[in-house]
C-alpha cells in the first residue's frame, strides 16, 4: 500500500500531536484555506472575495479575514479614496502554506476519484445482484 510507518517515542508523538493541534487551531474551519486560495489570485476587495467563495456570509468572512490577519497570513490595506477602498492580500508568510494546500488538493482529487470509482462498482454489483 505505501511505506511502512515508523513508530516513535511517546515524546515524539506528543510533539507531533501538539504541532498538528497548533496548525489546526490556526487553519480550522471550512473557510480559511479556501480564502487563502482565493487571495492567491492577488489583492481583492471584500465583495470580490465573498463572490469568489460563494456561500460565505459577510459576518463569517469578516471574522475569517481578521483571524488570518492576526496570524500574519493576510494584510488589510486601506486607501484614502472617496469612498475609502480596502483590499486584502496575502503576506509572504502565507507562502509557507503552499505545500500544505497542494498536498490537500492532490489528496482531495484522489479521494473524490476513489469515491466515484467505488460508487460505480457498488452500483454495478447492486444491478447484478438485482438481476439474479
Automatic annotation (TrEMBL):
The keyword Ligase does not apply. One of its GO terms (molecular function) is DNA binding. Signal peptide: none annotated. It holds the Pfam family HxlR. This is Transcriptional regulator. Keywords: DNA-binding, Transcription, Transcription regulation. Gene3D superfamilies: Winged helix-like DNA-binding domain superfamily/Winged helix DNA-binding domain. Residues 13-116 form the HTH hxlR-type domain.
